[in-house]
Amino acid sequence: MTTRAADPTAAELSEYVAASRALSVSRNRIEELASSRVVTAHRAQLDVLQRHLLADPRVFRDMFIADGMQAVAAEFRQPELSSSFVATLWQMLLRDDDASRVLMRFVWNVPLGQKRKFIRGIDAHLSGRYPMFAGISVGWPAENSIPPYVRPAAERTDDFELVNTGYLGYLQIGYTAREVDLFVWLEAIRDKQCTDSPCELGQLIKGHREPKGGCPVQIHIPTVLQLVGNGRFREAMELIESVNPLPNVTGRVCPQELQCQGVCAHSKRPIEIGQLEWFLPQRARTFEPGAALARLAGRPDPWVTATKPPVAVVGSGPAGLINAYLLAADGYPVTVFESFHALGGVLRYGIPEFRLPNQLIDDVVAKIKALGGRFVTNFVVGKVASLSELADAGFVRTFVGTGAGLPRFMNVPGEHLVNVLSANEFLTRVNLMQAHREGYETPLPAVPGKRVIVIGGGNTAMDAARTARRLGGHVTIVYRRTQAEMPARVEELHHALEEGIHLATLRAPSEFLSPVITSGSWAGSANAPHVVGRAVCDVMELGAPDASGRRTPMPTGRSETLPADLVIMALGNDSNPIIRESEPRLTTRRGGALQLAEGTQRTSVDGVYSGGDAARGGSTAIRAAGDGQAAARQIAKDIRLPAAEIRDRVARARAYTDEATTPNTVLATRVLATGIVEQVIHAPMVARAAKAGQFVRVLSEPKGELIPLTLSDWDATQGTITLVIQGLGTTSLLINRMQVGDVYEGIAGPLGRPSVLHDYDPATQTVVFTAGGVGLPPVYPIMREHLRLGHHVTLIAGFRNLDLRFWVGEGERVDALRADYPDLLDVVYTSNDGSFGEEGFVTGPLERMLKADQAHEASRRIAEVVTIGPPLMMRAVSDLTKPYGVFTVASLNSVMVDATGMCGACMVPVIVDGKLVRKHACVDGPEIEAHGIDWGKLIPRFGQFRPQEKASMVRHGLTL
Ligand code: FAD
């Protein structure tokens, strides 16, 4: 035995033989088993699985996920979720993959009790990492949720950056994009999917035309919540955008507490539908920039395909923008005509950027352009062209979305004082014209350190107050009811109070006074009596409810005086009369809003639709959008035209749009006298519509200032207008430096009312024009019109001296008129120093005429006097003619911003029946009956921004 064991070779050999024998047995057995039925079936299954794995690996993932979900479901059956399970679950949710979406779907679908368990789990186990989860389970889902992120008041009151940064705001404080998605998802899973969808459809109330609450643009709220609840964010966003192209705008400004959230089943803490509405597009904008436009790329241009007739949209507020978008998306060639140089309506000029960044309006405009929509700015419908003229130009339908831009005032004594202004003017200066920013030319009343009172309790008041606060003012909102009745969005009021704005409720200003002049800053200031310093307020109490259901404020008989260096009136707006005055067939309701046929957006004029504030009076952005949307549907349904007519209309409307968008290029310039320049500018639409007495609003460069300039001449055939500009401030001096080929940023006009040309007998009457300095150019076309009508005209043109005279030499305009109308035109020249014509002012010859007229010694009686020139000269003429009872009109080129009535800056205090009434030079004028004007109150207004103008000239290194 020992011998064998001691032989390793033999041992290895015998081991080999044994193993070979065992292997052979196993091989036989494998072959035997391989052909068995059971193993054959198993191998076939493996084959199939292998093929599936290669073709679609997700099948396997789903299998594993399904297994995982079994485990998750099992955990959810426990009384509470364990700390480790919640942590793992959250980790999986954070992975943003298929499995996490299955988990989201799972949680969305489990019964409420299980959802609560999940929320208790994250509250208990994750609130260390997410402080906003702490306590969330108390009263969840009805009373608790994760709020969107609002920048703290201390951080935000000095800047114009967004205040409510929404759920995406959590990114700025260190959370990841996926975490933010999950916060939003947590909000969505509070939804109950109510069967009657009140958030979307509102609640019907007997006797009311419109339901209470609901979504005016019907963004499919329940489905959107369901999609978000299932983690399908992109689909949710695309669903919203299919009906509302501006959710990133409406979601931020809509008064949700009155609409979708106002009727939410979770009445104590409604689901943050508005936040979700704008989160979705903003999320896409942040993480997939350009995707929104890419989705619209490659669509055929409706102006080229010409399969549907063109539609004109007037006004680019929310009503007009949604209307244009939906029609363009439906294949209609659309042109939007907007009176301002910038698009967006109140969204741009009213609502400040700390609530709504302008870039978001630009996004909407870009989408409309991507669909082929076209925009014409500086085009005031009703002035440049009437609605009928748009129809003649080819547009088969017109949607009027002109808003309600005419600010209301109190009409109380002292309203004329400098630094009493409308919120529209204040906000336009800041939001549209960026007056508060370095490098922009628009002046702004001084705000830093000033006591600002804002009158009103709506959104406009909040915006004005918060803007003034950001500009360094000490702001008080004065409101005649109590805080509870304030119509502003709850959020805005809350933010305003957080920002340190004071409320003076149950107070109604009854008079504004100039400052009490002591030894303070006003001592010795000549301006002091003309500037506001105090507001006398009636102390009110609440009486019985009025028609709106709100309790009526009643005076108590007591009053108090508030100090006020700047008074901003935010009392609501009425409709602008420009369109309705240009189209008498348009019927209106009380307050001037356009009347619509019951249940439609159709106006009384065939083919003309309206909506938004133009038809409702001051309302909300989302209602305006709802109207624009409804009008788009109705327009698309109403039109049936033969293909040939459609093609013809498209061609004509296209040519019209092209012409309206041609640049305003300077074609010729001529220095008339020191500091006075004449420009001929390409402006075919203005030239075609211009009438004597009208003016234009010019913006020379993007950061410039909007200023009014009277039309000195125009040539409809050449498509040109002539302006004469005297360099008096930065803007006019810079305009004077423009060269041939330079292009204006925009010219809007003709604006204002044309001169009223009465019938006069040339044999016995003469119309006297007194033109001081650059008063001659605006006088010229009016004078010419009278001459064309066969009237006799006397021109008294005054210049400071020989060097400053123009248009009076041989062959010049006045001379040419004399040649054309030798028997109808008498001319007298004056100069202050006697270097040209008669020495003295224009009042000298005028007084002689008045006296001769009174003494019946004149060959012709004075039919009327028209005076245009420096305010002091116009006042002198007015004072001179008044005792003679000679009808006198002054053409006022006042301080203006928009020049269409929207801002109220060009207030003219006029006495009517002994009472001070406010008129506006841009809509009631520019010609105003001179004897009614309270010149003492008007003239200081011309100098309102003199300090700012001086500072600007210094900045630019300019001198006069
Ligand atoms: P608008 O937005 O007024 O737009 C009308 C457009 O038409 C303007 O661009 C105007 O220049 C142009 N236009 C006017 N006349 C002509 C013409 N003749 N030719 C060519 N163009 C013309 N609503 C809310 O829901 N939430 C808010 O938070 C809110 N805040 C507000 C804050 C302020 C300061 C203001 C003033 C209003 C606010 N509103 C708010 C109201 C809301 O903005 C309006 O209800 C809404 O903008 C109306 O939309 P619209 O399209 O009818 O008109």
Structure description:
The protein is an alpha/beta fold and 960 residues long. It contains 36 helices and 34 strands. A seven-stranded mixed beta sheet has the order 29-28-27-26-30-31-34, with helices on both faces. It has a five-stranded parallel beta sheet with strand order 5-4-3-6-17, sandwiched between helices. The protein has a five-stranded parallel beta sheet with strand order 8-15-9-10-11. β22 and β23 (720-726) form a beta hairpin. α12 packs antiparallel against α13 (233-243) and α22 packs across α23 (459-470). The radius of gyration is 37 Å and the shape is elongated. The chain starts with a helix and ends with a helix. Mean pLDDT is 92; it is low at 1-5. The site of flavin-adenine dinucleotide (FAD) has 42 residues, from α18, α19, α23, α25 and α26.
Helices and strands, with pairings:
Elements: H1 2-5, H2 8-34, H3 37-55, H4 58-76, H5 83-94, H6 98-109, H7 112-126, E1 149-150, H8 153-156, E2 164-166, H9 169-172, H10 177-188, H11 198-201, H12 221-229, H13 233-243, H14 247-253, H15 273-287, H16 291-296, H17 302-305, E3 311-314, H18 318-329, E4 334-337, H19 346-349, H20 358-370, E5 374-376, H21 387-392, E6 397-400, E7 406-407, E8 420-422, H22 423-432, E9 451-455, H23 459-470, E10 474-479, H24 490-498, E11 502-505, E12 507-513, E13 534-545, E14 551-563, E15 566-569, E16 573-574, H25 578-582, E17 608-610, H26 613-616, H27 621-638, H28 643-660, E18 664-673, E19 676-682, H29 684-689, E20 695-699, E21 707-710, E22 713-715, E23 720-726, H30 730-736, E24 743-744, E25 746-751, E26 765-772, H31 776-788, E27 793-799, H32 813-820, E28 825-831, E29 838-839, H33 843-854, E30 861-868, H34 871-881, E31 888-891, E32 907-912, E33 915-920, E34 927-929, H35 935-942, H36 946-956
Parallel strand pairs: 3-4, 3-6, 4-5, 6-17, 8-15, 9-10, 9-15, 10-11, 26-27, 26-30, 27-28, 28-29, 30-31
Antiparallel strand pairs: 1-2, 7-16, 12-13, 13-14, 18-19, 18-24, 19-23, 20-21, 20-25, 22-23, 31-34, 32-33
